[in-house]
Amino acid sequence: MLRNFLLLVVLLPIEIELVGQVSPAYKNPRLPIPQRTADLLKRMTVEEKIGQLLCPMGWEMWEKKGNEVTYSSKFKHLIDSSYVGAFWGVYRADPWTKKTLVTGLNPELAAKAGNALQKYVMEHSRLGIPIFLAEESPHGHMAIGTTVFPTGIGLASTWNPELVESAASVMAREIRLQGGHISYGPVMDLSRDPRWSRVEESFGEDPVLTAAIGVAAVKGGGGGDLSKPSSVISTLKHFIAYGIPEGGHNGNTTILGQRELHENFLPPFQKAVKAGALSIMTAYNSIDGIPCTSNEYLYRDLLKSQWGFRGFVVSDLFSIDGLAGSHRIAKDIREAGELALKAGVDMDLGANAFAKMKQSVAEGKISIKQLDEAVSRVLKLKFEMGLFENPYVNPQQAKARVRTSESIAIARETARQSIILLENKNNILPLKKTISRIAVIGPNADNQYNQLGDYTAPQEPGNIVTVYEGIKAKFPTATVKYVKGVAIRDTLNTDIPAAVQAAKNAEVAIVVVGGSSARDFQTNYQETGAAIADAKSVQDIESGEGFDRASLNLLGKQQELLEAVKATGTPVIVIYIQGRPLEMNWAAAHADAFLCAWYPGQEGGTAIAEILKGDVNPSGKLPISVPKSVGQLPVYYNKKNPRGHDYVEMSAAPLYPFGFGRSYTGFEYSQLNVQSTGTNRFEVSFQLKNTGVVDGTEVVQLYLRDELASVVQPNKQLKQFQRIALKAGEQKAIRFTLGQEDLQIIDQYMKLKVEAGVFTVMIGGSSSELPLKTTFTVK
Fold first, then answer.
1. Of 301-315, 337-351, 519-533, 713-727, which gets the smallest average pLDDT?
2. Confidence class of residue 461 from pLDDT cuts 50, 70 and 90?
3. Is residue 675 left, alpha or beta, with left meaning phi > 0 and alpha meaning psi from -120 to 50?
4. What is the DSSP string of 685-751?
């Protein structure tokens, strides 16, 4: 008996060790996530830790064989040799990746591809750490077969956070159904220069509107609760002040003071972090000589320490490499990686720089503590998402639930609310029900890719409703004649005489012009995916990442087309489909009606036709000011005092101001009252009446001006807004509550404070149409 007991004592440690090997603590879902993370970190080699911080491009990680998908030899090599923890764009399809409708993945095959990658990692790597799959999703998952929404500037034009949250929930669900986990979006950059190529991705020029739409996008993505099966890790882009580059050149340096940074550019990101965003992407630009990708203040001090951000920071594609190659502050990409990690960047998108970190650790330039901090941020979220227990998805669910009729309906409603009526002379719109002859003309009238914007995958025929198709469907008894007339940029292949003849034979000519972000296989691309615009480039694209503009004029012979059609004497309705506010002076002056549709997504054609017919009353409002000339730039509404004076040639005011948008009905504002309800708290109330004969929706906007402050303030600043639907003739009492956040400023010592004094409150339908105005005093 004693011998058996001694034998048991001798064997017991071996039994425990064997059990530990079979089921280590990090694989126990009942244990707290910090404990699981710490246990896993202890078991990892330096190489395995570095691997978790690498995020190479992913579209070469799979091979398609008929209706099955498996991992590629390149994927196997990266996992076996570099222990890679994340991949970007596994499902991405576009000309840059050379993934087409034939060579790419539909939702079912995408799910199979993700499963194949996870299966190899879980079964063939030493520790079985699941991989993260990061996907582009600024206005829909950039993959074949998904739902395509209006681009960011269109989403913001709805001024409807609840609707944007619904759209974002569709995007998140479609990513997760196919096996993805991280959504690159929303884009939170304030854009104040329409020459910049990425205005279309942004939510416009204002911090309050950008914050509201961005927070809605994050909430739609799950709000940081990764236990929900439809939640994604929302990645906010781009940190920080990327949308106001010098000269409008994408990625150029940004000239910006600390107070402006904290007053306008940081608050939208901070609110989105509070709403649950768990990833932040660095920006390519520098501020005051410090590249954003190596700015320790931004990531360690501000984001992680002050804001309590618990997610991870990812570089923009090759932006760490750019510390050496572009910014020239590092002698090579290894040193660039050291600078980025020390600054608080946790993941290397592109994976060149961090891949060299083993030597940096060996030489003591990067400590194990610094490395572990970054790795733990990534691992914790993998545990939170439950990937260690269930890394796989159901391909049949992906097939059935990606791009459903319900999702398409949300895309259609988003498109409807994003379209802005700029002019409606003599109430030509909506068109008469008896109209029998319509000419639909222009380069954007029947081109599905031109209405989708950048970061869009190839589309199956019939997925997209163009303007021409929408009009044909909504006016079934009319003869609808389509003539392209001209291209966006090409000046050789034109047929303006055919367009003129079509207009002469019609009761109304609908001319759809503007811009294009539609990429094609003739475009050359940088390694980052940004297009290379050069003299040899003759494709129609004039917007989207890399296509910055020196002017905002309509390119090609579009202006000639407009003037020729107008000369026929037929009433002309002009529609701009565009990624940035292009020059609109002629259309504003000469079109009988004028609409801005941005890039309205897959349902844009239906939504435009519904508005033309009167089935939908337009309610979109501009999230960005439209300049008369590039010489006015920047022309954003909330400039600091004093108010600028006019130029010799023209007014300093924009052609169309921030917040502007017309309706088929009218709205009357009255009975403004401001009541103090406590310390730094005021209730603002007024009456809003629909004065027309049709139902309509008004976006009521509340602006404040601090009449005397210790630091210079904006001449006006949007603080709150509401979408109000009113029946014809209906009147409602509307209320806003102003609190400390609305009243506070950043003082000369960079502290938030509310100062006593007089404030002017202004309410109306745009930043320049504010019929209600009064003052109140903060004591």
1. 519-533
2. confident
3. beta
4. EEEEEE-SSS-EEEEEEEEEEESS-SS--BS-EEEEEEEEEE-TT-EEEEEEEE-HHHH-EE-TTS-
Checking if the pLDDT of 1 tops 70, the result is no
* Of the candidates 423, 456, 450, the residue with the CA atom closest to the CA atom of residue 558: 450
> What secondary structure does DSSP assign to 563-624, as a single string?
HHHHTT-S-EEEEEE-SS----HHHHHH-SEEEE--S--TTHHHHHHHHHHTSS------SS
Three-class HEC string of 459-481? CCCCCCCCHHHHHHHHCCCCEEE
Domain residue limits, the chain: 2-400, 419-624, 667-778
Longest dimension (CA), the chain: 111
Which residue type occupies 484?
K
Cα separation, 359 vs 324, whole angstroms: 18
Per-residue tokens: 701: 């906007």
Q: What is the pLDDT of residue 6?
A: 39
CATH of domain 667-778: 2.60.40.10
Q: Encoding tokens for residue 274?
A: 């509070």
Q: Using CA atoms, how far apart are residues 622 and 171, in angstroms rounded to an integer?
A: 24
- Predicted confidence at residue 520, as pLDDT, reads 73
pLDDT for residue 523: 60
The HSE-up count of residue 20 (CA atoms within 13 Å, CB side) is 9
Active site members: 316
H helix runs in 23-106, sequence order: 33-43, 46-51, 73-82
Model confidence pLDDT, tens digit, residues 184-204: 999 999 999 999 999 999 999
- What is 2-400's CATH topology? TIM Barrel (3.20.20)
- Asked whether 578 and 543 are in contact (CB, 8 A), the reply is yes
Q: Which of 758, 757, 762 is nearest to 774 (CA)?
A: 762
Give every strand in the sheet of 757-764, ordered side by side: 717-726, 696-706, 757-764, 772-778
Cα end-to-end distance, the chain, whole Å: 87
For 38-83, write each residue's pLDDT tens digit: 999 999 999 999 999 999 999 999 999 989 999 999 999 999 999 9
Q: How far is CA 268 from CA 151, 152, 275, 374, 393, in A?
A: 18, 15, 11, 24, 33
Domains 2-400 and 419-624 are alike in CATH topology: no
Amino acid at 693: V
Q: Which residue has the tokens 């854009």?
A: 191
Phi, psi torsion values for 702, nearest 5 degrees: -110, 125
Q: Is the overall model pTM greater than 0.85, yes or no? A: yes
Q: Cβ neighbours of residue 187 under 8 Å, at least 6 residues apart?
A: 138, 152, 198, 201, 202, 203, 237, 238
Per-residue pLDDT reduced to its tens digit, 319-355: 999 999 999 999 999 999 999 999 999 999 999 999 9
**Mean pLDDT of the chain, nearest integer:** 94
Strands 348-349 and 54-55: parallel
Q: How confident is residue 177, by pLDDT bands cut at 50, 70 and 90?
A: very high
CATH class of 419-624: alpha beta
Q: Are 279 and 234 in contact (CB under 8 A)?
A: yes
Q: Is the peptide bond before 430 cis (omega within 30 degrees of 0)?
A: yes
